[in-house]
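Ops channel
N.P.: pipeline sanity check, posting one input/output pair.
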């Protein structure tokens, strides 16, 4: 996706020429007579502001329909409702803790089985396919270990077995990757992150290219009702206009920081895919995450990602709090691991802040 295309797609209001998308707060729409409709009846079903965003987003993704939901988790829940008891879904091993928690609930409550497999190894995945397998669920850059998985071979494998491929593309955004164009069936994002981009909107999006799947999701979206509000839809459409600038800047900052951290005292391991603004760092055993977080001044200790500000998250007690400790330890999500979502600040401010916080935290520990 080229930056110029992105900017143009964000401008959709052609009836008045308004540059910023109008916010239609009306929940109900008057009919001219029996059997007549403007196309809008009730806002849960369809809202002009949400619709404008959904159409723009579907174009960006190369899909036919986007469904904007009240959160990223609502998007994943919407997708879960496509499946029934006995169905099996193969899920990438390292993934967002909230998704893990929702899948556990669906397994216990509704008997849908979620099997965690290493998508780095296609033979392992293929060995788990059976007559009940209905989908692959992949985070192409895993959270929080930043494992880079190429989903392309799975599109072919999925077609051979009549399996859906679902991609959680939150980290990459449509600016860096458009999986529907490559062969995926369903793409979702926590739009709370890069799409909104300013830490002021909670939202999710699901996009598909198959008309039958679109119709099924359309019915579920309206029926379940976790649809995105007009104001939040407006914020997402505004976010699209600067997505390319923000993604480029945070990726560039992250690439520089990942390089610098390779030789920084206190850092034992840099986990970075080389793409996106997301990277994780493992501190050396004699450094403490708590002490580091006490001293940061530019970076913020907060639990989200993809915004203009650099955030440091502690997966052990934040994003992955509901994962049993033994499971976390086994996966390498330990008490020295921090996840950074690099923002769009001046690079030097981020680097200097991390260096001074590491130094001061070391002094704390040794005093
Ligand atoms: C990769 C990923 N998917 C989904 C979600 C859930 O999104 P939300 O917090 O908007 O419900 C998150 C949240 O952090 C995430 O990181």
């Amino acid at each position: 996706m080229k930056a110029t295309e992105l900017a143009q797609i964000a401008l959709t209001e052609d009836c008045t020429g308004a540059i910023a998308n109008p916010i239609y707060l009306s929940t109900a729409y008057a009919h001219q007579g029996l059997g007549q409709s403007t196309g809008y009846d009730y806002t849960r079903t369809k809202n002009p502001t949400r619709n404008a965003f959904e159409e723009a987003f579907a174009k960006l993704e190369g899909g036919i329909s986007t469904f904007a939901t009240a959160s990223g988790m609502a998007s994943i829940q919407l997708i879960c409702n496509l499946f029934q008891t006995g169905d099996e879904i193969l899920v990438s091993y390292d993934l967002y803790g909230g998704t893990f928690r929702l899948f556990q609930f669906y397994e216990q409550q509704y008997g849908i089985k979620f099997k965690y497999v290493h998508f780095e190894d296609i033979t392992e995945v293929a060995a788990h396919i059976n007559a009940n397998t209905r989908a692959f669920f992949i985070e192409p850059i895993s959270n929080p270990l930043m494992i880079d998985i190429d989903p392309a071979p799975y599109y072919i494998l999925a077609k051979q077995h009549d399996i859906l491929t679902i991609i959680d593309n939150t980290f990459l955004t449509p600016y860096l990757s458009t999986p529907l164009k490559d062969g995926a069936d369903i793409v979702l994002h926590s739009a709370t992150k890069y799409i909104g981009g300013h830490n002021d909107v909670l939202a999710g999006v699901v996009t598909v290219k198959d008309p039958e799947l679109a119709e099924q999701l359309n019915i579920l979206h309206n029926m379940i009702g976790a649809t995105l509000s007009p104001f939040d839809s407006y914020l997402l459409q505004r976010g699209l206009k600067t997505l390319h600038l923000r993604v480029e800047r945070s990726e560039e900052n992250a690439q520089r920081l990942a390089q610098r951290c390779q030789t920084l005292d206190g850092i034992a391991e840099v986990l970075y895919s080389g793409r996106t603004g997301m990277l994780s760092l493992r501190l050396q055993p004699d450094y403490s995450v708590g002490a580091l977080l006490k001293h940061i001044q530019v970076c913020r200790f907060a639990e989200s990602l993809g915004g203009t500000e650099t955030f440091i998250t502690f997966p052990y007690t934040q994003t992955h709090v509901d994962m049993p400790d033994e499971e976390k330890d086994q996966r390498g999500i330990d008490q020295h691991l921090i996840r950074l979502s690099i923002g769009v600040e001046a690079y030097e401010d981020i680097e200097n802040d991390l260096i001074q916080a590491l130094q001061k935290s070391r002094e704390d520990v040794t005093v």
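N.P.: looks fine end to end. The first helix runs from residue 3 to 9.
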